[in-house]
């Protein structure tokens, strides 16, 4: 009579890999809720076998760092997409191990297919591992994007051991795995996409990439909270972590580096999703700006934001109106809601405006999301402009961080912002005094741009709001001003 195999049940956290003998509603390690997955193991599998993949590795003797041969590890090759090269630090490195994440339908597979075609056209061998699509579906996408598909090999294989044998038999320069959650190792416990399978599969591919000098890109899923699906160990394991961001109803796509061992994390790549796939945006300011930027409209202010190291001109629009509810609404699109609340508090305390019975709606034109503090000043000026129905002066652009005491703090990369504003023909720019090391960098082609240094939010309102004051709206009595009225302090510029 055959001996009956004994089984046991364990629970793994899908976020950090923590193991428990019973189900936990909240992980005690990473504090994630509802993240445990049940896995059934047999006694034939030792406890270490469920967490480790044994691979044949050579024995290496220690060597002095100065004697290590760099070989071809520093020879980058281009992806054929300058915006993507910018994020990667100048192109792809042999042996680099990258992870690309993003929301479903944002364009991860499309971007990688276009990259694969550019690399293949340059004479490099490319292999796409199709774990979620059939080769026929990838071919249909290539036809839609106008790609020939020549030089690109596709394999619909999800078993890591078979994939490893294939790559060793037919080495490639670029390997794209779509997606890492679809791979599995038969000898390991757990279903494809489980923490155990993701860690083990990624470990095998990492050793393969480093040993054979293969640039590997793993496409990963994201959770409902926006983080990468799977164990956090996966992000520590790879060399580069990229996020492809984009709004569902917007064409703009932003590739952002969260981690990069071979380049800066202060770079972003901008793309626009079109019928022929991802199209690079080489002039982002022109994408977000319209000809109406020189028209004086209440509630509209142009600011200069930095995406990575790249200056981008953006239009901040604010709409302030009376509320019909007990609690006024605060809506912010493109900026953090907490930043809006902070600017409202500063305006109420330092300027004297009363927003307690007013609805506020703020929008960044074009769908771009801005996270840097330099958007404080254009946001505050847009709120005052809309609340008092007084437009900013035509041809004005502003940038600056506003402190809680109402002061305007120095900007980083001040000269870069000034040159970007001058390139688009703006006439005046309000910026805080620069840092001492940046004061000498303002010299450059400004094309008639007049730079006005300001010290406080009040200075910005006095120098930025127009002296032409139209009729007050019906809710204007709600905007009681105690102390200084920055609008009344605006000098009369007529006749100058």
Structure description:
The protein is an alpha/beta fold and 496 residues long. The protein has helices at residues 82-88, 108-121, 135-145, 160-169, 195-212, 233-237, 284-288, 337-351, 376-388, 414-423, 457-464, and strands spanning 7-13, 19-20, 36-42, 97-102, 126-130, 152-155, 174-178, 215-220, 240-246, 252-260, 268-274, 277-280, 300-307, 310-322, 330-333, 358-364, 396-398, 401-402, 408-409, 428-432, 450-454. It has a nine-stranded mixed β-sheet with strand order 6-5-7-8-4-9-10-11-12. It has a seven-stranded mixed β-sheet with strand order 15-16-14-13-17-20-21. Strands 2-1-3 form a three-stranded antiparallel β-sheet, with no helix packed on it. α8 (337-351) packs across α9 and α9 crosses α11. It starts with 6 loop residues before the first strand and ends in a 32-residue tail after the last helix.
Mean pLDDT figure: 84
CATH class of the largest domain: Alpha Beta
Form type: globular
Q: Roughly how much helix do the residues carry, as a percent range?
A: 10-25%
The CATH architecture classification of the largest domain is 3-Layer(aba) Sandwich
Strand residue content: 15-25%
Contiguous low-pLDDT stretches (5 residues minimum) are 45-58, 471-496
Q: Structural class of the helices, strands and pairings?
A: alpha/beta
Task: Please give the structural blueprint.
Elements: E1 7-13, E2 19-20, E3 36-42, H1 82-88, E4 97-102, H2 108-121, E5 126-130, H3 135-145, E6 152-155, H4 160-169, E7 174-178, H5 195-212, E8 215-220, H6 233-237, E9 240-246, E10 252-260, E11 268-274, E12 277-280, H7 284-288, E13 300-307, E14 310-322, E15 330-333, H8 337-351, E16 358-364, H9 376-388, E17 396-398, E18 401-402, E19 408-409, H10 414-423, E20 428-432, E21 450-454, H11 457-464
Parallel strand pairs: 4-8, 4-9, 5-6, 5-7, 7-8, 13-17, 15-16, 17-20, 20-21
Antiparallel strand pairs: 1-2, 1-3, 9-10, 10-11, 11-12, 13-14, 14-16, 18-19
């Amino acid at each position: 009579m055959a001996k009956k195999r004994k089984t046991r049940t364990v629970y793994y956290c899908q976020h950090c890999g923590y193991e428990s003998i019973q189900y936990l509603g909240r992980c005690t390690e990473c504090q994630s809720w509802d993240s445990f997955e049940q896995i059934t193991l047999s006694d034939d599998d030792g406890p270490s076998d469920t967490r480790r993949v044994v691979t044949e590795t050579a024995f290496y003797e220690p060597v002095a760092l100065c004697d290590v041969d760099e070989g071809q590890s520093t020879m980058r090759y281009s992806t054929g997409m300058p915006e993507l090269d910018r994020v990667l630090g100048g192109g792809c490195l042999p042996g680099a191990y990258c992870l690309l994440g993003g929301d479903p339908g944002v364009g991860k597979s499309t971007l990688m297919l276009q990259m694969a075609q550019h690399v293949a056209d340059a004479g490099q061998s490319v292999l796409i591992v199709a774990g979620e699509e059939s080769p026929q579906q990838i071919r249909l996408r290539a036809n839609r994007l106008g790609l020939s598909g020549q030089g690109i090999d596709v394999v619909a294989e999800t078993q890591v051991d078979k994939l490893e044998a294939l790559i060793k038999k037919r080495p490639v320069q670029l390997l794209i795995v779509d997606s890492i959650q679809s791979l599995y190792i038969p000898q390991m416990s757990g279903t494809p996409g489980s923490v155990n399978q993701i860690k083990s599969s990624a470990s095998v591919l990492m050793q393969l990439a480093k040993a054979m000098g293969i640039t590997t890109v793993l496409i990963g899923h994201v959770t409902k909270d926006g983080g990468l699906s799977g164990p956090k160990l996966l992000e520590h394991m790879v060399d580069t972590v990229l996020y492809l961001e984009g709004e569902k109803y917007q064409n703009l796509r932003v590739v952002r580096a969260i981690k990069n061992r071979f380049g800066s994390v202060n770079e972003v790549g901008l793309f626009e999703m079109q019928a022929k796939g991802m199209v690079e945006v080489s002039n982002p300011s022109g994408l977000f700006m319209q000809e109406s930027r020189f028209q004086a409209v209440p509630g509209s202010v142009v600011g200069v934001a930095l995406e990575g190291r790249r200056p981008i001109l953006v239009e901040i629009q604010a709409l302030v109106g009376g509320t019909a509810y007990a609690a006024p609404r605060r809506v912010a699109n493109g900026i953090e809601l907490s930043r809006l609340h902070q600017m409202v508090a500063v305006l109420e305390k330092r300027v004297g405006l009363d927003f307690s019975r007013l609805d506020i709606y703020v929008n960044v034109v074009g769908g771009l999301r801005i996270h840097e503090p330099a958007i404080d000043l254009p946001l505050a000026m847009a709120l005052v402009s809309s609340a008092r129905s007084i437009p900013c002066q035509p041809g004005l652009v502003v940038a600056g961080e506003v402190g809680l005491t109402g002061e305007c703090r120095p900007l980083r990369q001040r000269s870069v912002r000034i040159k970007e504003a001058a390139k688009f023909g703006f006439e005046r720019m309000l910026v805080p005094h620069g840092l001492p090391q940046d004061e000498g960098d303002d010299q450059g082609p400004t094309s008639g741009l007049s730079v006005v240094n300001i010290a406080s939010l009040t200075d910005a309102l006095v120098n930025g709001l127009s002296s032409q004051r139209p009729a007050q709206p019906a809710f204007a009595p709600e905007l009681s001003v105690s102390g200084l009225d920055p609008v009344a302090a605006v000098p009369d510029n007529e006749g100058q």
